[in-house]
Design a protein that fits this description.
Elements (H helix, E strand, L loop, with lengths): L1 H110 L5 H40 L4 H42 L5 H23 L11 H36 L17
Helix pairs in contact: 2-5, 3-4, 3-5, 4-5
């Protein structure tokens, strides 16, 4: 019996030892698991902080880009508005200037109805000097304008759809209204000058110079109308490219220069009639044509 009791005690001690060892193993494994979870939490926190920092950087970059776009659009809006106002003021200035010139010319005619030979010679010289000066001025302006348009091509590439549509609308208005009105005015005055030349020529007055200048005016006007026809304005503003923008601007300026030369030739023809008659009060049509600006 004692022998069996001793055996049971030995077995009990062995079981107790195994239980203790198993508990120690579980404790060691639990501690390792806890350490692993803690490291994962730390890594996740670091990743979250890095992601937040990256998101904040992207937000600031996006805000900077938006601000840059707004500034660019604002600058382009200002530029287009300035150009539009310049066109309006330029056209108005042309009209006011021509009216002033016409009034001064008519007053001069009334005050001095008869011309001496010296006055005729002086007026003839002025006709030639004015024509030469205009040709030189047009060439100088055109060279500068080409440089300006080339520089604006880069700016036009950054315009918005609304700004391109606005440019298309202005170009269409220039072609179909302002240029059309200038052509109509010049044609009306050419008809009056032609009628006066025919009338004076029938009385034996030498109107050769007046007819020569009128012919030049008619030719320049025909060339201007051909240039106007070359202006291609797309139906959709969104399709306008920088090259098309430049082509419209340059072709329109060529047309304007030809209209200006046609008007100058008309003035020269009228002055030649003054020289031919020696007394021009009520004998020549008033020159009230104006050109347009682009």
């Amino acid at each position: 019996m004692k022998k069996y009791l001793g055996l049971l005690m030995v077995l009990g001690l062995a079981i107790s030892y195994v239980g203790i060892a198993h508990a120690e193993d579980n404790e060691n494994e639990g501690g390792g698991l806890n350490l692993g979870l803690g490291q994962m939490r730390q890594d996740n926190k670091v990743n979250r902080d890095a992601f937040k920092a990256q998101a904040e950087t992207l937000k600031q970059q996006r805000q900077g880009m938006n601000q840059g776009i707004q500034e660019a659009e604002g600058g382009m809006d200002s530029q287009i508005e300035n150009e539009r106002e310049g066109l309006k003021s330029g056209n108005q200035a042309d009209i006011v200037n021509m009216k002033a010139q016409n009034k001064a010319a008519m007053e001069a005619l009334k005050a001095n109805p008869a011309m001496t030979q010296a006055e005729k010679d002086a007026l003839k010289a002025k006709i030639e000097s004015d024509r030469t000066a205009l040709k030189t001025e047009i060439k100088t302006r055109m060279d500068a304008f080409k440089t300006e348009v080339e520089a604006k091509k880069a700016t036009f590439k950054a315009t918005t759809l609304a700004q391109r549509s606005d440019f298309r609308k202005n170009a269409e208005e220039m072609k179909t209204q302002r240029f059309a009105n200038a052509v109509s005015n010049l044609e009306a005055i050419q008809a009056k000058v032609s009628a006066k030349i025919t009338e004076l020529s029938a009385t034996g007055i030498n109107t050769t110079d007046a007819q020569t200048f009128l012919d030049s005016s008619v030719k320049n006007l025909a060339d201007a109308k051909a240039k106007i026809a070359e202006i291609v304005v797309p139906a959709d503003g969104s399709t306008i490219t920088a090259d098309q923008f430049a082509a419209i601007k340059l072709t329109a300026r060529d047309a304007r220069n030809l209209l200006e030369q046609s008007r100058q030739d008309l003035k020269s023809s009228i002055k030649s009639l003054r020289i031919a008659t020696g007394s021009t009060e009520g004998s020549t049509p008033e020159n009230n044509a104006s050109t347009t600006q682009q």
